[in-house]
Write a structure and sequence with these properties.
- By secondary structure, the protein is mainly α.
- The chain contains 22 helices and no strands.
- Helix 8 packs antiparallel against helix 9 and helix 18 runs antiparallel to helix 19.
- The chain binds one RNA strand of 16 nucleotides through helix 1, helix 3, helix 5, helix 7 and helix 9.
RNA sequence: AAUUAGGGCUACAGCC
């Protein structure tokens, strides 16, 4: 059983969940550790319904979850944004008497934050016998993300220790809700006190520069990214592409895009949207076609960017074509945003009758 | 042998 457990872990580490599950199912005996690691694997790979199903199953066969099991279960609830199931699990934890475990407490706080219930999160946090940097960072993130920057700031300043995650959470909060300059200040401050930014931090700061249209600062960030050796991260590369694009430096954006070692659909979208915003519709559409050729499946955001590019460049026929074929060709259902782009496109082109017609045919209510 | 926190793309309009 010990060896089989090792195998399951190995499979899960390389993302082979099906193989892991096969070994798990074939195990002659499963104890609480085997169940817990399988649930953890599903939760870590975003297969949350499976994680919760397994959690039910383990109880049905009479295996009692322990303090290692619940955090993964809560993580699944959080990812599903299911406050209802999260609360059920919380009740279960109280009945099981694991309330005083810190990791478990942190998981509860995280679940409530992610499900949007800051009051419950705060209550759990207050009732914890002791808190660590994770507990504090979770609450700061919760407050910062909903715009309660004052509270977040106060907790941040009262903390005995702050790590790179704490700083990044503050930066994200301020770039979303605050004066964006504050995000850059925090970034400089963190470096001054000797906390090393990582790829998460840099991506957040790049985004802050994009929102502020701060090319100068953005370029400095870019240089630091290269010096720090983080340039190969897809998310970070994309954030830089977007930063340059939003600052109107399309050629710089394209340079970063071209040297990226890997690109996902978000990277393509950022570049396409960049062209679109600056009226370079043809290039946007060209890039979209290249993306398809590269075998990347478009997302609903891709189509928003494409339609919006058509709208900015007055490409009415092209817009209609993409709009009409997106369901069949790319399996993407037209949502309110896509309709809005089309209405905008037709409106700008002076084809108000067609726009009217489209609004009337919309399957959803206009906003 | 198993458990917890942070990052990128998303139309149009509005305020001044």
């Amino acid at each position: 059983a010990f060896l089989l457990t090792k195998f399951v872990i190995l499979y899960m580490k390389c993302g082979k969940m099906l193989d892991a599950r096969q070994v798990f199912d074939a195990m002659p005996k499963r104890n609480v550790v085997s169940w817990t690691m399988m649930i953890a694997g599903y939760a870590q790979h975003g297969q949350c319904e499976k994680a919760l199903a397994l959690f039910c199953q383990m109880q049905q066969v009479g295996v009692q979850p322990n303090r290692f099991t619940f955090p993964s279960v809560l993580r699944a609830c959080a990812a599903l944004v299911s406050l209802e199931r999260g609360k059920q699990v919380h009740g279960h934890i109280i009945r099981s008497g694991f309330e005083s475990d810190m990791v478990l407490g942190n998981s509860l706080v995280d679940m409530y934050v992610k499900c949007g219930s800051l009051e419950c999160a705060q209550q759990v946090s207050d009732e914890m016998p002791e808190r660590d940097v994770v507990s504090m960072t979770l609450m700061i993130e919760g407050y910062a993300k909903c715009g309660s920057l004052k509270i977040a700031r106060q907790m941040f300043e009262e903390m005995p220790e702050r790590n790179v995650i704490t700083w990044t959470a503050m930066i994200v909060g301020h770039s979303q809700h605050g004066p964006g300059e504050e995000a850059l200040k925090l970034f400089n401050q963190m470096k001054r006190v000797g906390v090393k930014p990582d790829q998460f931090t840099f991506a957040s700061v790049a985004r802050a520069c994009a929102c502020l249209v701060a090319v100068k600062e953005g370029k400095q960030i870019h240089a630091q990214v290269i010096r720090s050796g983080f340039h190969s991260y897809v998310v970070l590369g994309t954030a830089l592409v977007d930063m340059y694009a939003k600052c109107g430096r399309i050629e710089n954006a394209r340079q970063v895009f071209d040297v990226m070692s890997a690109r996902d659909v978000v990277s393509w979208n950022a570049m396409i949207a960049g062209y679109g915003k600056h009226g370079r519709g043809k290039e946007a559409l060209q890039l979209f076609e290249q993306m398809l050729q590269a075998g990347v499946s478009p997302s609903y955001v891709s189509l928003i960017s494409v339609l919006s590019a058509c709208s900015h460049a007055g490409l009415v026929e092209e817009g209609w074509n993409y709009f009409n074929c997106m369901g069949r060709e790319y399996n993407i259902t037209a949502e309110a945003e896509h309709y809005a782009c089309m209405v905008d496109l037709l409106g700008r082109a002076g084809r108000l009758d067609e726009a009217q017609d489209l609004i009337q045919k919309m399957p959803l209510k206009p906003s």
